[in-house]
Amino acid sequence: MSRFPVENIRNFSIVAHVDHGKSTLADRLLELTGTIDKTKNNKQVLDKLQVERERGITVKAQTASLFYNCEGKQYLLNLIDTPGHVDFSYEVSRSLSACQGVLLVVDANEGIQAQTVANFFLAFEAQLSVIPVINKIDLKNADPERVENQIEKVFDIPSDECIKISAKLGTNVESVLQAVIERIPPPKVHRKNPLRALVFDSTFDQYRGVIANVALFDGVVSKGDKIVSAHTQKTYEVNEVGVLNPNEQPTHKLYAGQVGYLIAGMKNVIEAQIGDTLYLHKQPVEPLPGFKSAKPMVFAGMYPVDQSEYNNLKSAIEKLTLNDSSVTVHRDSSLALGAGWRLGFLGLLHMEVFNQRLEQEYNASVILTTPTVPYKAVLSSSKLIKARRAVQKNMIFIDQNRVMLKYLFPLNEIVVDFYDSLKSLSSGYASFDYEDAGYQTAELVKMDILLNGNTVEELVTVVHKDKAHSIGKAICERLKDSLPRQLFEIAIQAAIGSKIIARETLPIFKNIFQYGGDITRKMKLLKRQAEGKKKLRKIGNVEVPKDAFIKVLKTRSSK
Ligand SMILES: Nc1nc2c(ncn2[C@@H]2O[C@H](COP(=O)(O)OP(=O)(O)OP(=O)(O)O)[C@@H](O)[C@H]2O)c(=O)[nH]1
Questions:
Q1: Largest CB tally within 10 Å, which of 81, 296, 399, 559?
Q2: Is pTM beyond 0.90 here?
Q3: Can you tell me which residues bind GTP (predicted)?
Q4: Which domains does the chain have, with CATH numbers?
């Protein structure tokens, strides 16, 4: 790694609105620099997680070091591919701390969207060089000139600085690499100073412990060095250092200005804080500023399906939060569900992805309660508190066809279904981003869902008074559709305090043996029923499959 003096290093991120083509551009850059084989059908190579491949979205920022020859000089380019969805913007802001520039990718057909604006300002505030890249110029409806004008108008970047490419076909991608070298400055670091390494991400490997992604601001770190964590003041020996290429490739050393990984026998989340500074033993330094902590917007209770799984789930949550530090975790317990946690997420998609990763990567089976947002309640006998609707704050025309509107919304009106409704109403044209605007007063009620008179803890929710009836009715109808019939009638009710506001009745189950028929079919049915029982939760004497909770959650979204 000593072959790369600081002036031959460029650290940059790819940022964009969701689906504008970041991961596809990253594939082409990996191919062009020979990091991955060009002959293979490479698709979103840096999206390594199963959940990313299944959903076709990036949820985790990924780092790759590329080696590139330009005019006789060898460059080391450290690329960080970031997620586009608003729920994962915390990943973006952290990644930018290890960079001096960004490629701001904009779809040549869709033009500037909400996360394009949000990401531009993240980069601008961090004083990074911004290279606008207009992607998908191969599309029939592409209009790169219109997008150039938008970029000039909204971001004040001269249109001749835009690079027009097709990441899919590879058209003009080489000029992106040229621009990275010419327009992004090398990092401002000092190799002769004592080591200062920022931990900007980390993952947990079952055999090797914590693998920390580090950006070196000063000095050098070598295998065998004794290092100290500024956060815990614990000392460790470095077992391995290296670069991600895009898989781990050990190197004996990492030098200031470089980005790579480090393994030093850290075993848990408390030892490996994201934002921590590592320095050499006996050479203490002023720690780097670290990161603002993420502010969770959506909260849900999480419990093991089976209480004997509590410790396994605890360890799975700890390992996964190491890789996703934006999730907040507090111990919680419920009479009905036993011991569990209250988790805070940045949005509903974030919650779904976290749950899916727990199931896929840690084989955990969990019950999640209805997501809620935080409230501050002032107990008062008078009716002073008035509900507030969205209030328009301002309106800016981006060009003839596009307008940017700012509103003040109650958070619970937007986290669940707002984005989907906006997309369908605008035929996919409108996009959306949000930030916290503090607490407001509102008329809210706590709504219980009862099965034969017993409260279903997972479905207790806070709703606006005016919407309680329609949401309660929809939940009861959906529960009726998704609950299996049982040997007795079930009353499904929505209640506010002692007042019932909606009711459905699930009729009695008819035994399959009444119909006679093929014995093997009956055995199959019984076997399936027995397997299904493992995933059942008993509420009073009513058995509720886990799927039913998920279906009901989705009902709430559509109301
Ligand atoms: N026609 C065309 N399609 C492209 C181009 N670049 C990307 N795509 C397609 O656009 C879709 C989204 O591309 P991705 O690279 O996954 O987008 P992304 O910005 O990484 O998405 P997120 O990480 O989820 O935000 C995929 O179906 C790509 O095949 C391009 O240059 N031309």
A1: 81
A2: no
A3: 16-23, 81-85, 135-138
A4: 6-183 (3.40.50.300), 196-280 (2.40.30.10), 298-368 (3.30.70.870), 444-553 (3.30.70.2570)
